[in-house]
Amino acid sequence: MQGRVAIVTGGSSGIGRAVAAELLGRGMRVVVTSRSAERAAAAASELGGDAVGVAAQLTDVDGPQALVQAVLARCGRVDVLVNNAGAGQVAESETLDPGEFQRIIDLNLTATFLCAQAAARPMLAAGRGVIVNISSLMGHVGLARRAAYTASKHGIEGLTKTLAVEWASRGVRVMSVSPAYVATPLLAQTSKAGGFTMDDVAGRTPLGRLAEPEEVARVVAFLVSDDASYLTGSSVLADGGWLADGGWEHGGS
Predict the structure, then answer these.
(1) Which of 16, 73, 89, 222 is surrounded by the most beta carbons within 10 Å?
(2) Helix/strand/coil (H, E, C) string of the chain?
(3) Residue 192 burial (CB count, 10 A)
(4) What pLDDT, on a 0 to 100 scale, did the predictor assign at position 107?
(5) CB 111 within 8 A of CB 85
(6) What is the rounded distance in angstroms from the CA atom of residue 150 to the CA atom of residue 173?
(7) Is there a domain that residue 195 lies in?
């Protein structure tokens, strides 16, 4: 991966931060984004190496294109895009505010499409590139009080497949990674709103624990590498066996 350039949206914390660190460790130059220029710069400084921080307003219609242009101006190329920026949301569906529903769709789904579209233009021109969309277990199942979130993640799964088949013949691979619950500060906040504990999650997961961000990052690193050169349109579940378990309790008993 030496010399290749990756953009990791929402790369200042959580899964995005772990992905950025993993790709840096494998020789890539990595651009991490945040809505805040200060947070983006601080994350790049802490990551060190060939990390670059860029502020990006991904929900602005022109924001993703501006991001890609800034990266091209600074780095000269775009080889990889990891669409990681997103937000969770918990609310009763019958009282969910339409504006709040739209906010989650705009960030989790529309911005993912616009970033993929913007990054694909130089990738398609070069005849090579990889896009990985960070989806979720909730892109494959439903969960009460997550109408906006699950809709956005199901949308990402369909978007991934469409872009993959559309761009495959032109050298651009597109995949998604669907983690279950990952030990991040965002999950700690969501657990309070959702009324569950980390022990609840671990007890439901066949592997008996949450994922670490670095475990998801290593999956992403594999997908963007040449070792995964025949993979496109795939959704990789990094869920500790959650979706496979059809039993009454974890372990399938």
Answers:
(1) 16
(2) CCCCEEEECCCCCHHHHHHHHHHHHCCCEEEEEECCHHHHHHHHHHHCCCEEEEECCCCCCCHHHHHHHHHHHHHCCCCEEEECCCCCCCCCHHHCCHHHHHHHHHHHHHHHHHHHHHHHHHHHHHCCEEEEEECCHHHCCCCCCCHHHHHHHHHHHHHHHHHHHHHHHHCEEEEEEEECCECCHHHHHHHHHHCCCHHHHHHHCCCCCCECHHHHHHHHHHHHCHHHCCCCCCEEEECCCCCCCCCCCCCCC
(3) 11
(4) 97
(5) yes
(6) 24
(7) no
Q: Which of 112, 119, 148, 149 is catalytic?
A: 149
User: Hey, what are 186's tokens?
Assistant: 């965002």
Q: What is the pLDDT of residues 203-237, one digit of tens each?
A: 899 999 999 999 999 999 999 999 999 999 999 99
Residue 249 lies in a domain: no
Q: Which two tokens stand for residue 172?
A: 């651009």
For residue 142, what are the CA distances in angstroms to 39, 145, 152, 245, 249? 33, 9, 12, 15, 18
Q: Which residue has the higher pLDDT, 248 or 216?
A: 216
Is pLDDT larger for residue 195 or for residue 93?
A: 93
Instruction: Report the domain count for the chain.
Output: 1
252 pLDDT band, cuts 50/70/90, is very low
Task: Give the domain extent around 90.
Answer: 5-180+220-235
Percentage of the chain modeled with pLDDT above 70:
96
